[in-house]
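User: I'm writing a short report section on ligand binding and want a predicted complex to refer to. Could you take this sequence and iron/sulfur cluster and write out the structure as tokens? A short remark afterwards would be nice.
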Amino acid sequence: MTNILFSLPWPLPARATRQPIVPVFLPYAGCPVRCVFCAQHIQTGRNPAPLAATLKTALAVLRHRREQGLPPAELAFYGGTFTAQPPAALRACLNLFETACRQGLASTFRCSTRPDAVDTPRLALLRDAGCSMVELGIQSFDDAALAAARRGYDGACAHAACQAVTAAGLRLGVQLMPGMPGVTPEIFLRDVSRLCTNPAAVTAHAVRFYPCVVMEGTELARLWREGRYIPWPLETTLDALAEAWLMALHARMPVIRMGLAPENDLAAALLAGPWDPALGTRVMARALFRHVRRGLEARGLRGLIRLEVPRRCQGYFWGAHSELRAAWAGLGLATPPVWSTGHLIRIEARSAP
Ligand code: SF4
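Assistant: Sure. The structure tokens for the complex follow:
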């Protein structure tokens, strides 16, 4: 039995932007339907308000930032179907950005919308108005899943929308929803792989993973109560997200969000589903563990003798509440890892007898 030394890459997660973002929440603005899982007023912590009041508040936030000596921000219009708003509402949003820009309060903006609500003229309008990124609520590229969730478009439409955004010279953000009705872990990972391994088809500059949860007041809550929808268990979700996060890490694709933010009303409205305040930590911890375990398996190695891990993993290495201690011990890790600088995991392990 001999000791083998080898290393594995552990790249720094790609970041989409370093610019501060000021969100402007427009719950359900422009939405042609209320999607079965959607509770924007809870997810964003905002009830729909008159547009003029929302925009006025956003301008006040931007001015307050400047008074504090903060740099110009990126405005982010979230929570609805930005490009499907009535023309006057869309124009009011663009005017707000124009004013903020003129006053040196903002330098660019992004928006979220549906794939069936973008076309070349609308994307050109956004680009010419100073938009940097369009985030598409794709949820899945799978036809059957999109039909099961009654999204109202198919995979070809989702695909074409992604291409239209980048063809317009805009950066593309993609939102996927593991656990949406009809989405299995296999379908979700196929969707992620489509973004990570086929950049010629879809070049996403950022991705968000929002595991599907059941919120009070949604159509999904009714389906869940009738036993017609079963959310993914948390364990399934963590495993699928760990795989997805690993794929994105190696493809240098920024994952800018995993799971819903813990807004005040969320806990009271959450009926079921894989929500966890430590979701990101748990996912990254599992991803790292799997990466090392696969490295050992690929070389036919047995027990870990020594493990050196980039220091930036320190915050998540053991998972939430040290949940992965037993798993690491099962790989033979008897002592804590050595924290290092750089982007490599260095491993010393025993060969099989
Ligand atoms: S998921 Fe998107 S399109 Fe559907 S209701 Fe919510 S904000 Fe509107």
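A remark for your report: The pocket of iron/sulfur cluster is lined by residues 28, 31, 34-35, 38, 40, 80-81, 114, 137 (CB under 6 Å). The CA atoms of residues 74 and 341 lie 32 Å apart.
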